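[step 3/7] inverse_fold.run input=structure_tokens len=267
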């Protein structure tokens, strides 16, 4: 089930940021969670493909990927390898896909929970930070997927791992049905992916409601509800420790967005 926890103070927030488990086998502290921030707690966990194409997403997905490859083929040869490559690159550049962005960093998740909306609206609605357990989701995978992770000493899939297993999107949907989904680590194509510590949930067509899936299939998923009156304090804290558009989106666009908020006058 999904546990809902209200965040009403910075002390509540620090507990999330510092959350790690000690592993005896490594003699190190490690986190097993991924995070996704939403600027409004009422927003749902939906992919861009679902949001844009709605009930027609199954019919439209292949056309989107094929046309993206057709028109962008001069930009990169990597997309010729598989549908997965086209989808990952497309997601990175704003193409509607079945991939959902998550981050290994709770700070990056909090950045997206307190940005991306009109500045006049920040602090007027509750925000949300979702947390999912990597190990728990991996336990739901079919046997051949678990075996592939074990053979590669990995916790997340890569495009090359899926290609080596000869898993295309149709096979993936057939294997996963409504019971499981996998986590995908993208190649470090540019500094933005590196800085955001990005990972993807690959949503099979059988799962039409991600929140319902997490509620029915998992025990460790958490939705933190961040109270509206705390959003600006969190935002200023993140800027202070350099978690801002300047770092999240390296380049002039990120600098401009960072300065836009830094010099915003609340009145």
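[step 3/7] decode complete -> sequence:
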């Amino acid at each position: 089930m999904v546990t809902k926890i209200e965040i009403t103070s910075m002390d509540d927030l620090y507990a999330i940021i510092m959350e790690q488990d000690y592993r005896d086998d490594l003699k190190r502290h490690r986190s097993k969670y991924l995070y996704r921030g939403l600027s409004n707690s009422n927003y749902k966990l939906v992919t861009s493909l679902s949001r844009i194409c709605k009930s027609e997403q199954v019919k439209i997905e292949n056309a989107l990927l094929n046309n993206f490859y057709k028109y962008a083929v001069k930009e990169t040869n990597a997309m010729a390898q598989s549908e997965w490559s086209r989808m990952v690159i497309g997601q990175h550049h704003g193409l509607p896909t079945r991939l959902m962005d998550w981050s290994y960093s709770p700070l990056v998740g909090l950045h997206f929970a307190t940005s991306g909306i009109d500045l006049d609206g920040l602090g007027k609605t509750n925000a949300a930070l979702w947390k999912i357990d990597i190990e728990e989701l991996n336990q739901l995978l079919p046997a051949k997927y678990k075996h592939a992770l074990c053979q590669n000493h990995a916790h997340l899939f890569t495009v090359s791992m899926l290609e080596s297993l000869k898993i295309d999107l149709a096979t993936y949907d057939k294997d996963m049905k409504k019971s499981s989904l996998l986590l995908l680590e993208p190649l470090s194509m540019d500094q933005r992916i590196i800085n955001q510590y990005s990972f993807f949930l690959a949503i099979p067509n059988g799962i039409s409601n991600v929140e319902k899936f997490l509620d029915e299939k998992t025990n460790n998923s958490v939705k933190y509800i961040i109270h509206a009156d705390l959003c600006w304090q969190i935002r200023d804290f993140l800027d202070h420790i350099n978690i801002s558009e300047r770092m999240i989106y390296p380049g002039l666009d990120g600098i401009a967005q960072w300065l836009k908020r830094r010099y915003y006058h609340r009145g």
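[step 4/7] annotate
The chain has a mean pLDDT of 93.
Residues 35 and 106 are 6 Å apart (CA to CA).
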